[in-house]
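Recall the central idea of this unit: under ordinary conditions, the amino acid sequence of a chain determines the structure it adopts. In this exercise we apply that idea directly, starting from the sequence alone.
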Amino acid sequence: MDLLPLTEQLLGIRSTADRPDDLRRALDFVLDVVGPGFTVERFESGGKPSALVHAGDHRPHFRVIFNAHLDVVPGTDDQFRPRRDGDRLIARGAQDMKLSALVLASVFRDTAARLPYPIGLQLVTDEEVGGRDGTLHQLEQGVTASFVVIGEHSARRVVAESKGLVTVRLRAVGRAAHSAYQWLGDNALVKVVRAVDAVLAAYSVATGEEWRTTVNVARISSENQALNQVPADATAWLDVRFPPEDTDFTGRTADEVAAHFTSLCPPGVTAEVDHFEPPHRADPDGPDLLALQRAARAQGYSGDLLRKHGAADSRFFFQRGIDAEIFGVGGDGQHGPDEYADLATVEPYRRALTAFLEDLA
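Accordingly, the structure predicted from this sequence is:
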């Protein structure tokens, strides 16, 4: 448990997307844990810093990359004051994923120089807001690997599959009028509400865990500010998550997905796709994945494969033909008021990662 005091310090850093100084503090903190003797490549995109750590002067093609994000979602003041309850370490980011990040950093520090193949430590600060300025940016700058372990929460299992992500806007244009004379106008907000109803009729709100496409209505808005005016515009924002099996999304272009949503809407409403990223899937019989499962099971983890509903940075590797798995410490409650990491899983996690690297050697 030598990492516990360090973890508590890292959890106290309020590294949310709107606090760039704290994002840098968190990144520098973990780099200090890694210590000297390694090459540190620093990147920045969209105001979000990241780093890639490796042995040797020149960046190689990595046999393995450990990937960790150090940003967290917003929380209350008390969530950035970590506390213990038995084996539970409770704080914002405890499970997602600052403790796992420090374990990955410590295993990298202790093994990178002695392994007969190159490994890298990839530290990013934007995963919670999309990952495009961290992991994706580094890949666009030429970072390559054969296999990636991401320390996200995985319920003591190994995530080899996760859903794709689409963000969609439903736009309606109407005609303004005095609200007392509705027949002279055309209410765009009513059109968008009906469009949302139509989309939810096709993709009902999930009331339990189901491996299917889901649509979250995140926001509905209009530029109209007057109660006595018929709105002439309206927009609904949708967050869509889809599994690889859904052929309305997998293998389609962004324009085709936009046309699909437009076809669900009543006349006068059109769909636009802001972001469209494929699901993530790794070869369940790949030798590296099987090696990771063996190492996890040897330390008491189940090592079973898990399908994850949320998108992760693993999708950026998948797009480039790189197998990426998610494997992190135990815990629960990510993004919630009582998020916690299970401290009893930390040393087995560290031993599993070390054994995995040695097995590959």
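The longest strand covers residues 164-173.
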